[in-house]
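Lab notebook, bench 4. Still working through the backlog of constructs that have no structural model yet. Next entry is a single chain of 330 residues. Request: give me the structure tokens for it.
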Amino acid sequence: MRPMPSPDALPPSPSDAFEVVRARLAARIDRWTAGVEQFPTANTSLTLYRHEAPTEATSCMVEPAIALTVQGAKRALLGDDVYAYNPHRFLLTTLDLPVVLQAVEASQATPYLSLVLKLDERAIAELVMQGQMHPPTREASAARGIAIGDTSAGMLERFDRLVQLLDEPEAMGVLAPLIHKEIFYRLLVGPQGALLWQLVSTGSQGNRVARAIGWLKAHFAQPLLVDELAALVQMSPSRFHHHFRQLTAMSPLQFQKHLRLNEARRLMFTEQADASTAAFTVGYESPSQFSREYSRLFGAPPRRDVERLLLSAAPVALPKRNPSGAALPA
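Model written out:
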């Protein structure tokens, strides 16, 4: 009879392997974010985040990205839906979306730690062509431009290798794009593959809505004629309304309003614009209407909201540029 192997000789269980790589990645992020809440890395697609206390719910626009939490927990609200993510569940956004973000588990002893990798549409499209991938089912293509997925030890390992490259700047330019593609490929062949397909498949409903959002981001201060925007992306007005709301949880006019208000908030917060100047800059003709809609979205009139932000320890939740480039769903 062969002797039983000692417990130390047994291979690690899947849960043990997950925890080992999670802790290793958390330690890397903890080191890079010491003393800061947002760390834009030398890899321009990758940003690291840290919160040492729960945050207030903050309205903002987020861009297509994967947000991977390795410690603590956060949630995103889109319309009436809540997307909770933590070390076992990641957040994927494939459209620029107006959401409410809130860190719900964070402390000085155990800070919230995460990373965000922006999606690269060109790299994803190349993978679709190289892999000769098939379009998603109708049911899958009807999904919103946001989803929660299960984080695996393999996913953590890929991101750990990516963050490790921050210590190897000479190798980053060569190896980081390869790891990005590996991450995107695994997403494409996983349960969230349909969302990525919608992002890059010309003619899909998701791609057309993404094009419409791109136009709105570039022209948010202009009056919006929805019928003309629908024609621009080659959809009937009724079909355009239906798919836009299905993917973003709001109408095109509501989406434009979120773009305008978030940009006005940025102007007041980062460029010290007064409320009237910000309102007119983003396309409002009535300061009183601007103040009402601003208060409804952000929970306070413009001046009081900006004063609160200036006193806040976590201003990084705001977009740092205008709506032509949204914030990240950290």
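Notes after review: The first strand starts at residue 38 and ends at 40. The beta strands are 38-40, 46-51, 58-62, 65-71, 73-78, 81-85, 89-93, 97-105, 112-118, 146-150. Flag for follow-up if needed.
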